Predict the structure.
Amino acid sequence: MSSWFGFPLLVHPGLYAIGLSVNASTLRAMGCRESALRCRAIPNLCRVARGVEMVLFENVHIFNCRSEERSAFRIPLRANLLLIGTVIAAQAVHILAMYLPGLSDVLEVAPVPLWEWAALLGIAVSLLLVMELFKALRVRRQRSDLSNAPAAGA
């Protein structure tokens, strides 16, 4: 039975990755105190910004999901052009919903300022870094477990 930091793995390691991403998302949501203070000045900003954040978060995280072990930076983007197109389309639909008159009124959303986009993208990219660290530690641990395994026939 393999283990992770001394604890036996009773479930698929991918579930640990999901737990990490959920925890990162929770910490991200808890860390919006400054954003909440800005919301008093711009109506609906918090609600709309959280929606933008979730879309950016998922669009960034999908690139981690291409492999459980290989780094997202080692897999060429051209390996899955459908994924690239889908991410661009999803982001475009979200942006259109905010900026298109009529649709933004129906959805009760407003454009998010550029400075908020930049902050939210930075938060979304932080999950990519957390998951890359998780993958690196996981691969390192697996190699360590293999090198410590008893030799066949011994």
Observations:
- The first strand starts at residue 3 and ends at 4.
- The longest helix spans residues 114-148.
- The radius of gyration is 20 Å.
